Amino acid sequence: MAQDILAEETPGVADESPRRRFPTRLRRPALAVIAGLLLAAAFPPIDLWPLAPVSAAMLALILRGRGLRAATGLGMLYGLAFCFPLFEGLRPVGMDAWLALSVFEALYFALLGTGIALATRLPGWPLWTAALWITEEFVRGRVPFGGFPWGRLAFSQTASPYTGYAPLGGAPLISFVIALTGGLLAASVLALWRRGASSPGPAPGVRGVVLMLAGVLVLGLAGVFVPRPSGGRPVTVAVVQGNVPRAGLDFLGQREAVLDNHARETHKLAEEVRQGRLARPDIVIWPENSSDLDPYQDAQARQVIDSAVRDIGVPVLVGAVIDHGDGEHVENRGIVWDPKTGPGAYYVKRHPLPFGEYIPIFRGFLRKVITRFDMVGEFVKGRSAGNLGLGPVRIGDVICFEVAYDGLVRDVAGNPLLVVQTNNATFGRTSLPPQQFAMSRLRAVEHGRTMVVASTSGISGIIAPNGRVLDRSKEFTPAVQVERVPLRTSRTLSDHLGATPEWALALLGFAAAVVAAWRTRTSRGT
């Protein structure tokens, strides 16, 4: 089928019998589905990262020369084939949620298909199509309800040669380089096919093909040579994963057990320290939802936390759900808990999950037609970044899927230590925990910071500034991790540039699509 697509670029090629075995009108749709599945396989847990540029190359070849309506449909098929396996982690929530999110996210790829079909009509089209990938990711990560940037190309490259681009331009630069690699691969394949085919007109120059293939090689290897500093003032960090009674949506009904689990593992840590089997930590990190009982109002919950924190004798970052007292509104907090003074400074999650932690639209109606929404609280959005002092360390705290948002992590990246508090119990043993952990790994390299991930049920871990995983827990297993890690204060180029690379590339892609559309319209009018 791939040969059939290329053959359409060379009108003189003979119509051989194998082509008749597959209906012509289904060739490109079938290849679009295959390309989307290949991109999904580039992400954890399969983690075949080289498939990402290959998938981008296939998409460019499939869309090149297509009309806008056909390109939109092909982009939608590609998006569905990618998103449905990518969001497999929503199975525990319900097939309807899995399907709805997959279809909605695929709409962005339908628009991407339209844009790529237009951009491939321009000279130098691999550059413009790569920029259009960033345009798509830019919009998808912001619209609607603050966006959902899960599944960006960069998040498939958290342990690959492309990871080295992270300190230079963050996730947007990685996505751009992958898409550009794919575009150059597509252009090279197309040029080689034309040279081998008996098509009219001059064959593409060998020099051009060599330069494009050299570009693929350079883009794939250059990131390896970007320095990844890892030194800094040492501090000993402990992560407590207490585990939950069982997976599933109903685990929150066992709040006391979850809190007791984390307190018990902290008491065990304290005993191990007293026995000299573990180093005394300077700070301890508990995950999101480690206390779903409000410790400000529940005296027993406060006593359980106080006892554990006093036993270990160092400040603990506690994840808790705080009740506003009106029977509806709550906060998702990371609370600094001192062994002497108790609860102090805190961070409130700034980006609650739409339809998971709050219902942004039609709340009353949706609760009537989808009874599962009765379980969704109304989480209040935080107003300030999670810049916290935790004993001797300044930390930058983000909660759960906030790690996917460049801006939220960038706001706290000036701190020497970054923390992700998360609760993956509902999505345990699916694709979501490893995908989230991979994002955390990318953030460590992007900002040159030690990254600590604390999860109720896994995956918890400690990641060095160069991206090396120092410790990683299994899922649904109590675990305590203690590591001596470097605290860095120097900023990466990505920190200095901020959102500028993403804005510039997104606008470049949009401009290319506009120019291509204008040229197409003008040529038809003449």
Structure characterization notes:
The chain has 526 residues and is an alpha/beta fold. The protein contains 15 helices and 13 strands. Helix content is 45%, strand content 15%. A hairpin with a 5-residue loop joins strand 3 (316-323) and strand 4. Helix 3 packs across helix 7 (166-196). It starts with a helix and ends with a helix. Mean pLDDT is 91; it is low at 11-18 and 248-252. Residues 1-20 are annotated as: Disordered. Keywords: Acyltransferase, Cell membrane, Membrane, Transferase, Transmembrane, Transmembrane helix. Catalyzes the phospholipid dependent N-acylation of the N-terminal cysteine of apolipoprotein, the last step in lipoprotein maturation.
Large-scale geometry: globular
Helix content: 40-55%
- Give the N-terminus to C-terminus distance in angstroms: 35 Å
User: What can be said about the biggest beta sheet?
Assistant: 7 strands, mixed
Specify the number of helices: 15
Flag low-confidence runs: 11-18, 248-252
The fraction of residues assigned to DSSP E strands is: 5-15%
Order of H and E elements: HHHHHHHHEHEHEEEHEEEHEHEEEEHH
Mean pLDDT: 91
SS content category: alpha/beta
Membrane topology: Multi-pass membrane protein
Organism: Actinoallomurus acaciae
Subcellular location: Cell membrane
EC number: 2.3.1.269
Keywords:
526 residues; alpha/beta; seven-stranded mixed β-sheet; six-stranded mixed β-sheet
